[in-house]
Specification:
Layout: E1 3-9, H1 19-25, E2 42-47, E3 49-51, E4 61-66, E5 76-88, E6 96-104, E7 114-122, E8 124-125, E9 131-133, E10 136-144, E11 147-155, E12 161-170, E13 173-178, E14 181-186, E15 194-201, E16 206-218, E17 223-228, E18 237-239, H2 259-262, H3 276-290, E19 298-305, H4 306-313, E20 316-317, E21 322-333, E22 347-356, E23 362-368, E24 381-382
Parallel strand pairs: 1-18, 2-17
Antiparallel strand pairs: 1-16, 3-4, 4-15, 5-12, 5-16, 6-7, 6-15, 7-10, 8-9, 10-11, 11-23, 12-13, 13-14, 14-20, 16-17, 19-21, 19-24, 21-22, 22-23
Length: 383
């Protein structure tokens, strides 16, 4: 089976981020084919549609291969993802690069509803320039009319391969799997008809290279379509599109954590009886500031479990660690969100976070249009 390969070196721009810039610079520059339809039980194949960064202009960049824009409704999708490079040409603050697979629901790419899973590298810093969140992490994320939510899965390593998969569970729910293990459920809606896989970077200093093997979708009746690249069917098609030329070498991958360093948390914070409130305050201020709100108006928190917290957030998750759920009021722009090139950055009046009660690691976060009702979890305290 051939693979979708993406190797992108970004150039130009200043690295500034905004919703309008995201839309303006991520227009498609090439379309290599149209997706075929499932023609028989078992395995079928379709050509790959590709899109990517305009030459020499990309400070915020996407490059994807997809099933195409023609509706092909399906009930499952997935890929075997390998990221060979997730790095930056120099150390950066509050930027990220990622490699992922995304399913659009409710009729396609214009709906604004989708669920995705992938691997990322990047950092969020506190006011003293200490990293709050850093390193290579597997994640999944979901976008609904009420907001954007993102969930930590596990720490990752460069060059390792993980299967990411999405299965429709009925009633608008999608079950999310990572390496064959159920990790959560997203209520992003039915009628999925576009799936895409590729990279995203918030800065022209990003370096990304990855492969999506066995990229496919299925109808739930035994029909599975594998989306294959056009061109060289043995080695796959490389998508370079950022500098306007094709370069067969990956080149250097600077500032990517070594495999041994990336396998364990690097940002654990003290969560003792005397320090946890300060830790929660530092985390809250860092994430609020990274989301465009340096002075949030109101912050409350409550100790609960990760499953209960996610139910209050409108999501489901398998992990059930003890966490602190933090809810913050203000005017937020989710600069850390992993969203399609066609979509504006999520905005809202509320930010919500879960923090591991033992390690101080941020496990879930999101920006929503209004505060979530957390009264069923108990009495919240001000922070």
């Amino acid at each position: 089976m051939s693979a979708i390969r993406s190797n992108v070196e970004l150039s130009g721009g200043t690295g500034a981020r905004s919703a309008s810039r995201r839309i303006a610079i991520a227009a498609a520059v090439v379309a290599l084919g149209t997706a075929g339809s499932m023609v028989a039980a078992g395995r079928a194949e379709a050509e790959l549609n590709t899109s990517g960064c305009p030459p020499l202009t990309a400070s915020y960049c996407h490059s994807y291969g997809s099933s195409g824009t023609t509706p092909i409704y399906f009930s499952s999708a997935g890929a075997d993802l390998t990221a060979y490079c997730l790095g930056f040409s120099e150390g950066l603050k509050d930027d990220f690069v990622n490699y992922q697979t995304r399913v659009y629901t409710n009729g396609g790419i214009a709906s604004g509803t989708w669920v995705e899973e992938g691997i990322r590298n990047g950092s969020v810093y506190d006011i003293n320039d200490n990293p709050i969140t850093t390193g290579i992490q597997w994640f999944w994320a979901e976008a609904m009319p009420s907001g954007y939510l993102e969930h930590f899965i596990t720490y990752g390593t460069i060059g390792s391969t993980r299967n990411v998969a999405f299965y429709y569970a009925g009633s608008g729910d999608w079950d999310i799997y990572h390496a064959g293990v159920y990790i959560g459920t997203s209520a992003v809606g039915a009628y999925a008809n576009v799936v895409e896989t590729g990279m995203e970077s918030t800065t022209y200093m990003g370096r990304v290279a990855g492969i999506s093997r066995n990229f496919n979708y299925g109808d739930g009746l035994g029909h599975t379509t594998y989306i294959t690249p056009v061109g060289d069917q043995d080695s796959g098609t490389w998508l370079y599109l950022a500098k306007g030329y094709v370069n067969a070498g990956m080149g250097s991958c600077p500032n990517t954590p070594a495999a041994s360093a990336a396998a364990a948390p690097t940002t654990a914070r003290p969560m003792t009886a005397t320090t946890y409130r300060q830790t929660l305050s530092d985390i809250t201020r860092a994430w609020a500031s990274a989301s465009g709100e340096p002075k949030p108006s109101r912050t409350s928190f409550i100790k609960t479990t990760r499953q209960q917290a996610n139910r209050a957030m409108g999501s489901k998750i398998a992990d059930d660690a003890d966490v602190y759920l933090i809810q913050v009021s203000g005017k937020f722009v989710a600069h850390q969100a992993k969203v399609p090139s066609r979509d504006a950055l999520p905005t809202g009046s509320s930010m919500i976070l879960t923090v591991d009660a033992s390690t101080g690691q941020v496990l879930d976060w999101g920006v929503t249009t209004s505060p979530r009702d957390i009264s069923s979890l108990g009495s919240a305290s001000s922070l």
